[in-house]
Amino acid sequence: MPATTQPTSETASFDVEAFRADFPALAQDVYEDTPLAYLDNAATSQKPTPVIDRLEQFYGEENSNVHRGVHKLSQDATEAYEEARTSMARFLNAPDPDQVIFTQGTTEGLNLVSSTFGEMVVGEGDEILLTEMEHHSNIVPWQMLAEEVGASIEVLPVNDRGELRMDLFPEMLTDDTALFAFTHVSNTLGTINPAGDLIDVAHAAGVPVVLDGAQSAPHMPVDVQALDADFFVFSGHKMFGPTGIGILYGKREHLEAMPPYHGGGDMIDQVSFEETTYDDLPHKLEAGTPNIADGIGLGTAAEYIMDLDWTAVQTHEDAVLDYATAQVQAIDGTQIVGTASEKTSVL
């Protein structure tokens, strides 16, 4: 399809109007009867009716704490919460739901890993390798860790097209590199990084990998077993789910070896004033009353996405990106930053 042709439901094999109808916020008019055109999905997405309805159902019919009650509401809430975890495991093709940890979002997931696993593997004189296209959430936690233990931060640069300098990557993995953390998809450039290749090279050098999937989870199928990252983190609110909820996936051997991130209820096995033993995964890393409703809402969002035709969605996204790029390039004096050959719908 020519880039100057405006995409439609028919040309892109994707029923845009039916899809938009699932999102109540998109039905409103703004600015003197102008229909809302929402283009800020990289910051947060709107929510479809099934997610909104599921939250209402929980608070209206199932509201209770989880994992600690024998009455019906508690059993119903616990079942719904753990079913959401199972949905997230299917969404990621994780080998076991126990390896799916609920968090507050990408930021907390990265802080959790840096504060537990990071302190296990990064020491004085070591290097933490990041890339030039990282979000602040994948920079600051590692800076804090480096300052704490006496490590340093190294940065893999990008080229003029907004692509990682893959030619420099192998030489930046030195004997001192203790960990590599990078974004799967850039939130500002839209660049889709060759995650599989990067992970393979890092692992060949004996370096564990933390993958920020905040922008990839909403835009492409994610298979954590195929990617083989040691950790994969993302937020719910960018993939049609509620705010304040996200996921950390980790390889079992790492999650089991990591100390708890927070202490409190629900993450314990036995407690006395002399000693505490911790629960098994995933609860060891989920202290206190969790964000139950939003966890359930996130599971519903994942089911909603898994019901979509990914090929049709991506075809339409690519068509919209090509069309928008051509229209912007036609404006005198404009320059597009981020022209990678592999990119998602960020302009």
How would you describe this structure in keywords?
347 residues; alpha/beta; Aspartate Aminotransferase, domain 2; seven-stranded mixed sheet; two-stranded antiparallel sheet; 11 strands; 13% strand
Structure description:
With 347 residues, the chain is an alpha/beta fold. It has a single domain (52-304), classed as Aspartate Aminotransferase, domain 2, CATH 3.40.640. The protein is built from twelve helices and eleven strands. The chain has helices at 16-21, 49-62, 72-92, 106-115, 117-121, 140-149, 169-172, 195-204, 224-227, 252-257, 292-306, 310-329; strands at 29-30, 34-35, 100-103, 127-131, 152-156, 177-183, 209-212, 231-235, 246-250, 268-271, 276-278. The strands form three sheets. The protein has a seven-stranded mixed β-sheet with strand order 3-9-8-7-6-4-5, sandwiched between helices. A two-stranded antiparallel ribbon has the order 1-2. Strand 4, helix 6 (140-149) and strand 5 form a beta-alpha-beta unit. Helix 2 (49-62) runs antiparallel to helix 11 (292-306) and helix 3 (72-92) packs across helix 11. It is flat, with a radius of gyration of 21 Å. The two termini are 19 Å apart. The mean pLDDT is 94.
